[in-house]
Design a protein that fits this description.
Blueprint: H1 5-29, H2 31-48, H3 57-78, H4 96-114, H5 119-129, H6 135-142, H7 146-166
Helix pairs in contact: 1-2, 1-3, 2-3, 4-7, 5-7, 6-7
C-alpha cells in the first residue's frame, strides 16, 4: 500500500525544511532541546491538516516554530525560570554598560547593512521583523506574491547574518 500524495509531499517538505527549523531552535534553546521542538513543530503543522491548502507552507511552519518557542518562554516565566542555564557559555557576563554599547553598535551595523537594499526590501523586512507581520499579510498588503516576500526577507537576513558574524 502506498502513502497518500499529501503524506509524500509533506515528507519531501520535511526533508527540505528540517535543517532550517532545527537551526532556529538550536539558536533559541540550544542543541539539547532543539530536536524535540523541531519534531513538535512538524507534528503540529502536519496535524493541523493545512499543508495541502497553504500557498506558503514554509512561512506557516516558521510561524508554528516561533509560537512553540514563545510558548516555551511563557512557561518558563510562569515557573520562575527567567534565564535557563547554558553550560556552553560559562563566560562572565559583561558589565551592563558594555552590553548596552555593544547592542547599539550592532543595531547601527544592521542599519548600515540594510541601507543598500532597495526601499521595498527594507520595508518588507521591517514589516516582518518590527511589526510581526506574516509573509502572507505582507504579500496581501503590498500586492506581491508570498514567494517575493520570502526572497526579499532572505536577502535582508543574509546581510544581517554577515554583520552578526563579524560582531561575534
Amino acid at each position: 500500500m502506498t502513502a497518500p500524495a499529501s503524506a509524500v509531499a509533506f515528507d519531501a517538505f520535511y526533508r527540505a525544511e528540517h535543517a532550517r527549523v532545527n537551526g532556529f531552535f538550536r539558536r533559541k534553546v540550544g542543541r539539547d532541546e532543539a530536536a524535540d521542538l523541531t519534531q513538535e513543530a512538524f507534528m503540529r503543522f502536519y496535524g493541523s491538516g493545512r499543508f495541502a491548502t497553504l500557498e506558503c507552507p514554509r512561512a506557516y511552519l516558521a510561524t508554528v516554530a516561533r509560537n512553540i518557542w514563545l510558548n516555551r518562554i511563557r512557561q518558563q516565566k510562569r515557573r520562575g525560570i527567567l534565564y535557563p542555564l547554558d553550560e556552553e557559555r560559562e563566560a562572565a557576563t559583561p558589565p551592563e554598560q558594555e552590553r548596552r554599547f555593544e547592542g547599539k553598535e550592532l543595531r547601527r551595523a544592521y542599519w548600515r547593512a540594510l541601507r543598500p537594499l532597495s526601499r521595498k526590501t527594507r520595508r518588507i523586512f521591517l514589516m516582518h521583523r518590527l511589526r510581526g507581520m506574516t509573509y502572507r499579510d505582507i504579500a496581501d498588503e503590498l500586492g506581491i506574491s508570498c514567494k517575493a516576500v520570502e526572497k526579499r526577507i532572505e536577502r535582508a537576513l543574509a546581510r544581517c547574518r554577515k554583520v552578526a558574524a563579524r560582531h561575534t
